[in-house]
Amino acid sequence: MTQAGTQEALAQEALAQRVRRIVDATPVVDMHTHLYAPALKELLLCGADELMCFHYLISESFRVHRLPYDVFWGMSKREQAEVVWRALFEQSTPLSEAASGVIEIAQAFGMQPGRFTLHDLRAVLSDTPTAAYIDKVFQLAGVDLVVMTNDPFDRAERAYWAQGVEIDPKFRASLRLDTLVNQFADACQDLQAQGFDVAPDLSGRTFAELERWLESWVERTQPVYVAFSAADDLVYPDDGVRGQLLDKVLLPVCRRHKLPLSLMIGARRRVNPDLRLAGDSVTQASLRPVERLCADNPDNKFLITMLARENQHELVVTARKFHNLMPFGCWWFVNTDTLVEEITRLRLELLGPTFIPQHSDARVLEHLIYKWQRARDVVARVLTDKYGALVRRGWAVEDADIERDVRRLFRDNFWDFVQA
Ligand code: FIX
Ligand code: ZN
């Protein structure tokens, strides 16, 4: 290498270290998880067996063990964990994103490099989420707050909220309304049983009653946003049930409380129902309804994530057109090293640091550790590259700039959007 080349490589290495130090030191706000505050008791999952029974790993394990579905589902959680462990860590090398994540968790808990067993993992992790254990995981993950996914139609969860639970401030609520928006007939039955005067054809006092119901949940849970997911069937404007629910209930309530509406688009549910939670798939979807939602409702805010890789470019372009749209996260099947890097570069190149690069979607407490380790790796790599190019073009990049950008990406963009 020439002397100039060596100097440039050293400068790039020094830059990489500065960026890494700041990325590691910046605590994250994890704006979409399936974790629950400890007050919601058994809903907060942790420990080795829960990790093995993560639906990502269950679906991967079926490709190896090929057990009949009813045999697998008939087993206890402990037995299922053993089946998954054998398939993915003994009969296979844990190369997938989700399987290798388990190794990262074990490392973070001080497991010696080399090989370990499920028995070892059970000994190192706790299956009881004590306050000290939660603090330890948050600290290892570099996360200081997580947003839950709270479903008012889930009976177990509803029972806790009805008791007037006290929520640990490290956990914030989000109201997840898939049942209301995607299965209105079921939602109606449930609401009628709770004494709300609602009708499946939306007649009579339905809208006023739905608003009363939603207001009561906003009051009870103090959410940071309201959300639902959709496949490729979102339409807007729409005079069908979903469109009317949006226009007459969700959007007005969100406006009143300045709550963003979060749309998670592209999940095709129950493609293989035998796999239960693991049986959902992906679909491309149109961005036109999102465009119209943003254009026709300028006083609403929209958090949007798309599941299909093919939709990522259009989402970013749409965000350039509408400032009330905040793209977030690399969801589920696009949460892989390769795709997170591609999507993060694309977003930085078209939006600058004005998006939310990642959420964890953690279902088990310890997931926070590997999901955020991965996100930090990619964000640090991409930022180093981009800052390096700026320096070469003649723009000085100070630590304060890096700190401001990383804070925006990991926390401020979310809070500023929620609070706007
Ligand atoms: O709809 C969602 O919030 C999805 O993230 C989940 O339903 C999905 O099962 C999941 O865990 C993906 O990471
Ligand atoms: Zn999720």
Describe what this molecule looks like in 3D.
The chain is α/β, with parallel strands linked by helices and 420 residues long. Helices cover 54% and strands 8% of the residues. The protein has 18 helices and 10 strands. Helix 1 runs antiparallel to helix 17 (367-392) and helix 16 (337-351) packs across helix 17. The N and C termini lie far apart (51 Å). The model has no long low-confidence stretch (mean pLDDT 98). The structure holds D-fructuronic acid and zinc ion. The site of zinc ion has 3 residues, from loops.
- Number of DSSP helices? 18
User: What global shape is seen?
Assistant: globular
Fraction of residues in β-strands: 5-15%
Oligomer: single chain
Quickly give the structural class: alpha/beta
- Biggest pleated sheet: 5 strands, parallel
Distance between the termini: 51 Å
**DSSP strand count:** 10
Identify every distinct bound molecule in the structure, by name, code or SMILES. D-fructuronic acid, zinc ion
Q: Roughly how many Å is the radius of gyration?
A: 22 Å
Helix content: 40-55%
Low-pLDDT regions: none
Give the spatial strand order of the biggest sheet.
4-5-6-9-10
Keywords: Isomerase
InterPro entries: Metal_Hydrolase (IPR032466)
Organism: Alicyclobacillus cellulosilyticus
GO molecular function: isomerase activity
Q: Main traits of this protein?
A:
54% helix; 18 helices; 10 strands; binds D-fructuronic acid; globular; binds zinc ion; three-stranded parallel beta sheet; five-stranded parallel beta sheet; alpha/beta; 420 residues
